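Kindly review this protein for my students:
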Amino acid sequence: MKTHVRRGSIAAALLIPALVLAACGGDDDDSPDNGNGEGQQDGDGGQITLTLSENAIRGGKNTEAAEFIEDWLIPEFEAMKAEEGVDVTVNFEGAGSDDEDYKTAMALDLSTGEGADVLSLDGIWVGEFAQAGYIAPLEEVHPDATSWDGWEQIPEAVQQNMTFDGQLYGIPGGTDGRVIYYNKELFAEAGLPEEWQPTSWEEILEAARALKEIDGVIPIQLNGGVNMGEATTMQGFLPLLVGTGANIWQDDMWLGGSEQVQQVLDLYATIYGEEELGDPLLQQEAAGRDNSFLQFSEGSIGMLLEGDYFWRSVINPTSDLAPMENRDEVVGWAMIPAMEPGAGINGQDFVSMSGGGGHVLNPNTEHPEHAWDLMAFMESPEALMERHADDPRITARTDVNDEIITDEMIRFIADEVLPITAYRPGLEAYPQVSIALQEATEAVVTGMSPADAAAQYQSTLEGIVGAENIAD
């Protein structure tokens, strides 16, 4: 039996009057368009009005994105359509709310057949919205979408961020990747190579054992426990799990306390228990993740698994978080190996996990062709290079990354990590499943056996999704 999300399951939590009012900006009587095509003139020379929704607002949350949309994207797109002889006006429906509130507002609009023509959507929500019937595969909304030449520039692994059950629901935007960061100076002191790339979990442990010989150094930081939150799942558990050849959601089933889950928990037990290669107390502190950042920047942690955010924002020499003046000289990085060569998903030697979002078409749009043109233009090389000219980030497109990324480490993520990465399942139950995984790692960190922690996870998972939706 497959896990099904009832159409009303998302909307059930939405009927809060204040939130309903906030969600229905497109229903304002003074607005020229309510996002579902009313008030639009169809295409024989008449004006067409499209709406674009994003959780960004000038002067507030994601202000740079809002400024880009209003100051460059919309004028350029309207001018492009005018050259084609089409009179298009794009209205921007910006928000500056908590992500969950934004998600709730979108779900409410879509559940009633309304909402903007083009919407930004976190990849972690795609499956949930698809199962609820709020979004549809691109080819069902606009058949020509799948022939877009931009797909050739987006690796298949990255396309998975906006894919559910093998069907594309949108165009992915920015993304990221996870690696192992390591301190080259500590490696040299421990007799380890400066250019290091482990090919198995055992080689990671061998490096940790060598680092343990240095007084005052924590060999490895592998996020664990509930206080680390989603960082435990994304930077710790899931990259290791895909390194065993398993996914937390596969073949329409959740993975229970399986052999692969136990293999991951065994590694946590080795690091935080048997061999004392990590600091278990750090995993239990309320500010444990921030403290691990600081300790790495000060040279007291040898290896740390994190995303490119860590390089760009945390230990950047100009950062206010944990700046490293000598970052470029001292910090190395390596891909996360599978448990052993070839043991990862798809027979991979190396693995990673990524996050990010993208844009989807409202299946109720009155103008799918023009809405698609707007969405494709947003993810065109011209638009992306303009958007990220002063703040180079990893985009979904390899051609754009080739142009805008000059940082060696970020280039490594774009070139080496994205083609082999994986994504979390965008399902309604995932946040609860993630917490259950965090609890399992915390149990091991605090002394429970991996077998018992896996059994505890299995029991918790059954309470979340039902035993019939769990693979053996």
Observations:
- Residues 1-44 have pLDDT under 50 and may be disordered.
- The two ends are 13 Å apart (CA to CA).
